[in-house]
Amino acid sequence: MEIIGYAAAILIGVSLGLIGGGGSILTVPVLVYLFGIDAFLATEYSLFVVGISSLVGSVSYFKKGLVNFKMALIFGIPSVISIFLTRIYLLPLIPEEVVRMQHFTITRNIFLLLIFAGLMILASYKMIKSNSSEQPLESMMTKNNNLRAAGQGSIVGILTGLVGAGGGFMIIPALVNLLKIPMKVAIGTSLVIISLNSLIGFFSSVNHTKIEWKLLISITAIAVAGIIIGSQLSKKINGKKLKSVFGWFILVMGVYIITKEIFL
Q: Distance (Å, rounded) from C-alpha 162 to C-alpha 159?
């Protein structure tokens, strides 16, 4: 299963490099189901894998002048604060057994995976409907856009801190719709935000977790190779055309996780 897991790690990186998001939503399921890592620990590992991969991927966009650091700060600062608070204070509050009935128990691991599956389904919807994400939202007041983006950054931060997802599927539409950033700049800026969020989230709670560094670094190295491949492919392939296909794949994965954790 580990061989399949490493192959999936390449896909995580390729997705991040090609469309600026989506790959991170696969990281926790890959770690849990293919590498056999505890779901709670997988959220920590995911932050490192996604953070390093996104950081490497953002370099090529930075060199092309496709990163807007001002917008990264508007979105990123509230997100970082939310991640820190979530990892330090909220996540430890989740009990080992969240719900217990006669013949049915939802443990912390299952609870986190169910939240993640719901996030995957939301991400898949946004990817399948990706064409609408490029349409300006005329009903939104321009003067409120920065505030709205900051608010959405806080939401992304909570989700990143809770389940270890980078949140690119929420960041890119926010940058395009609220801050009126061109798509390619939004992808580069998203990678910067994701790397910042994920790495701060990882190092804010790493002291409370026993990390198997050899495994983590090997998975990360494969994902980094994937994001380099994805960044090169982005020059030749229109990532927007792949979003809906990738979205359907994530939808199937999300439904599978819910079915496996509750009914199997």
A: 5
